[in-house]
Every structure is written in C-alpha cells, then in structure tokens.
Amino acid sequence: MTRRRAFLLAAAVVCLALAVIAVLAARDVGSWQAALRSGDVEAAAAPPGNVPAWSVDEVAPFGLARRLLGIDDDLAFRRAVALFRRAHTRIPSFDTGLEGTALRVAAETALAHEIRSDPTAARASAAANLLGVLTVLDSTSQAGGSTPIERGIFEFQDAIHLDPADEQAKTNLELLYQLTSLPNTPRGSTRRAGRSHSGASATSPGHGY
Amino acid sequence: MRRRGIPLGDVASLGRMGRRTLVFRALLAVALAAALSAAYLASHHTKKGGALLPSGKSPVVAVDMSWSVSYDSYRQIEQTLRQLADSGRRIGLVLFSDVAYEALPPGTAASELRPYLRFFEKRGTPNPWTDAFAGGTRIWTALDLARRMLKRDRITNGSVVLISDLADAPNDRAQLGETLVEYVRDSIPIKIVGLDPTKQDEQLFQRALAHGGGSVTTLGPALRATTSRRSRPGFPDAMVAAAAVLALLLGLNEHALGALSWGRRRSA
C-alpha cells in the first residue's frame, strides 16, 4: 500500500466517524425538540408539584447536540420557573413548612443564577420578578419575618432595569410601594382609600420608571 | 558541527521544500506541546476537584461549633482541620453557632489552624467562645460573615468551605435563601463538608447549591471515607479532547515527518 493510499484510507475512516457522529447528533437534536415541547406541555398542565425533566439521553458524545443547539440557558430558565411553581403553591401550610421553605431556598438560588447568567434580558427580568415575589413572601410569612421587604423592592427594580418593558415587575413594584408607604403619603392614602386599580397606581401602568 | 554526507549537486532545488518542512515541524512541535499541556492541565483540574479546598481560590473555612455537632463529628472536624492545616494554602476561618466569629482573616497561612485543633480533640474541651455561643445552628450567619470578609478584603476569586452538621434552624430558611442568593450574585462557590447530616438537611443544601456552583461532601458517623454526593460527576471532556488532539498530532508527525526508510530489495 502506497503512502498516499494509506493517507486516503485514514482520511476516509475519519470522515466516516464524523458522519456517524453527525447522524447521532441529528437524532439527538430531534429528541431535544420533542423533549422541550412535551416538557413545556407537561409543565403547563401538571400540578405545581411535578417538575418535567426536559432531558434527553443523548447518543452523540460530549453532549454535542445540546451544545450545538445552545439550549442550556433555555433549560435553566424552564427549571427555575418550575422550581418557583413548586415553591409557591399558595397553600400556606406547605409554603411555610419544612419542604416548602427548602424548595423556596432552591428556587431562589436557581432564579438568582438565572438573573446572573441568562443572556436574554426579558428572561433574566422575569426571573428577577419571580425572585421578588418569593422575597416578598419570605418577608411577609411568619417563617421569615426578619427578611426586609425592601429586598423585594430591589428585586422588582432589578427586573425593570433588566427589561424596561416588563409590565409585571412594574405592577408588582407599584403594589409593593403602596403596601410599604406611610398612610400620609400619596401612595399610602391611595391604598387606604381602596382606589388602587388592579395593582397599578393612579398613573398609567408601566410608565415613570 | 555539520554531519558528513554525500554531497548533492542539486541541493539548492530542495531548499524550498526543506524550509517548508522546517516550518511544518516547528508548528507541529508547538501544537504538540500545547496539546500535552492542555491534557496535563485538564487531568490536574479533574484531580483537584475532589480536594477539600477548591483549587485556585482563596477559601474561608466556616466551622460549626454548635451543640448539635456530635462527639464523633468533633473528631471529624479535627481531622478535617488538620488536613487543611497541612495543605500549605492561605485561608480565613469563621467559627459559628448562633452567631459567627471571625477567627482568622482571609489570607492567613493554613498552618495557623494548628492551635485550634486542641479544641476539637475532645468534645467539651473549654474554648474561648463557649460563653459567646448559645449553642444553636444558624448557618446563614457564618455564610454571611464569610462573604463579607471576602468582600472587605477585596478577594475576587474567593470560596467558602462550610464544615457543619447542617442542622439549621427552620425559621432561618428565609435568611439562608437570601444569603445563598448573594453568593450566586457574587459567584462565590460553596463547598460543604457535612458532618453526618440528616437526609433532609443534606438535600436542602444540595438543591440550593445545584445552581450556584457548589458541592456537598458528607462525612459519615464512623469516620468512614469521604463520600462525594455530587449528583453528576463531570465527564473529563477537556482531557479526553486534549488527549485525542495529542494522539492525532502524534500520528500526523509520524506520517508526515517520520524518518525515511528504504525499502528492502525484493528477492528475485
């Protein structure tokens, strides 16, 4: 066998290996698409206690498909929101119990990680908004009464800073301002008179920040 | 000294190919050296990941002094501190129960831990903090103090090693969550050495650290070997890739730059 022929044979083997990896990666890409779709449906339909896995047993080496798709941030966001749902069941006995508070700690760190690492401003803002909600729950619940409610204000402000179009964060911030304002201030008197409309202030919702 | 050889008449015509081979050989040598270094660093990193102190970080060690820490655990603390003292690293030390106390500032030589070992040789040995500590476990106070120490000393690559039974007061979960959120914000990894914690307590910290870059290592009751409970030990991708590149380059070297071999004369 000549040298050139050996070289061509080696190149053919390499190409064949690359082709096999490409086929496996393509299969994994399809599996990821299906897993994301079914996970989203499951998350929307299932009770808060269930967290979809959003996972695929990848065949291609080194998590190639996941890396090529760049879905790590999408998965992290979904998992953080699912954790929030689990931690905030609106059942007081669960939310303030051992399991509920432990889930809340996990949800808070997951959301904080999301705020820090997600390149999409809208998603980071949504995570900050959800973290603000958990913080307010912490500060108003008996279990965590010593958490300052100002932390909630900070989180909502952070959410608005990350995405100025985040209407939910603006509404939550306004609500919190009303809750924490003294009665002799305009916001406090609005709350006292019960004139606040659907959580927003007297100004058009979402403006003035 | 030049090697003697048969002089060639048309050596000048080979000059261009010679230079090209030289450049190729140099590039290949650099690539080989880089791949070898990468493989070494990757394997080094994998090995260091299992160590008690995170590599390349300025750690603060927080030690639980509460009454819930059992007699067995005191011996484990002593062994762990001895291991840290022998590490030759620079560390900070926080002792805590329901309040936290800065015993050693960050950057202190780890050998300074040795004088503290005597307090952990036997449970009940009087120590200077007995009166100050009430006996409860408030982990967030230690984590908060350790983070503030790193911030105060402007240590940007800091980390925290928490040695505790993790029997935290349930009423403090909100503050614990708040403190862990600050750790995530500041990208400070936490490594927890759990002293025979309950399953629930261990799970609480594993879940919380899953998103912030940390790990929980549990020490059993009878001084059994350290068991890492990280959910998914990372596959050494970088090392495998570097080794593959190294093998490929070596193959290329043999193929393209191997010594000329003259074929045997075929027998008639």
Can you put this structure into words, describing what you see?
The complex is a heterodimer of chains A (209) and B (268). Chain A has 209 residues and is an all-alpha fold. Chain A has 9 helices and no strands. Chain A has helices at residues 3-45, 64-69, 72-87, 92-95, 98-117, 121-140, 150-162, 167-180, 186-193. In chain A, helix 6 packs antiparallel against helix 7. Chain A is elongated and about 95 Å long. Chain B is an alpha/beta fold. Chain B has helices at 15-48, 71-85, 114-117, 139-152, 173-186, 199-209, 237-257, and strands at residues 58-64, 90-96, 100-109, 158-164, 190-195, 215-219, 227-228. In chain B, helix 6 (199-209) links the parallel strand 5 and strand 6. Chain B is elongated, with a radius of gyration of 28 Å. Chain A binds chain B through residues 7, 10, 62, 76, 80, 98, 101-106, 108-110, 112-116, 131, 134-135, 138-139, 141, 143-147, 151, and chain B through 170-171, 173-178, 180-181, 183-185, 187, 200, 203-204, 207-212, 235, 237, 240-241, 255.
Q: How much of the polypeptide of chain B forms β-strand, as a percent range?
A: 15-25%
What proportion of the residues of chain B is helical, as a percent range?
40-55%
Q: What order do the helices and strands of chain B follow?
A: HEHEEHHEHEHEEH
Overall pLDDT score of chain B: 79
Quaternary structure classification: heterodimer
Assigned CATH class of the largest domain in chain A: Mainly Alpha
Structural class designation of chain B: alpha/beta
Spell out the CATH superfamily of the largest domain in chain B: von Willebrand factor, type A domain
Radius of gyration of chain B (Å): 28 Å
Largest sheet of chain B: 7 strands, mixed
CATH architecture of the largest domain in chain B: 3-Layer(aba) Sandwich
Keywords:
heterodimer, A: 209 residues, mainly alpha, Serine Threonine Protein Phosphatase 5, Tetratricopeptide repeat, 0% strand, B: 268 residues, alpha/beta, Rossmann fold, 2 domains, 7-stranded mixed beta sheet, 7 strands, 42% helix, elongated
